[in-house]
Amino acid sequence: MSSAPHSGLLKVDAPTPAVLALPGPVTRDAVPRLCARVRAQLEETGAGVVICDVAGLGPPGLAAVDALARLELTARRAGGRIRLRNADPALRALLGLVGLRFEAEGEPEEREPAGGVQEAVEPGDPPL
Fold this sequence. Notes:
By secondary structure, this protein is of the alpha/beta class. It has helices at residues 31-45, 62-77, 89-97; strands at residues 18-21, 49-53, 81-85, 103-104. β3 (81-85), α3 (89-97) and β4 form a beta-alpha-beta unit. α1 runs parallel beside α2. The chain is flat.
């Protein structure tokens, strides 16, 4: 069996992540419903990521931290994760304070530095 040769790269459509706007303030009663929506959106899109728009959460507090932690746990159990959109610096600081790290839109992923980049110079190192 033979096929015609392809010219150029193959076109692959990547799934588009769903966006879930979180209303504020998030109550404890609303969290199970939001978790069910995250699970359903991961299944429907197949993207592996649900973008949570947190602009409407209002002032950050422990209720928002708890809700985001539960959404992330739900997404992880379903084989995905959540990514934050429009995260207030105070919310990100609070999340960091309690030890939760979330990927945020517009933020570079943490990776190894590019080749040839030297973070510190030790005495006796030859110049590049």
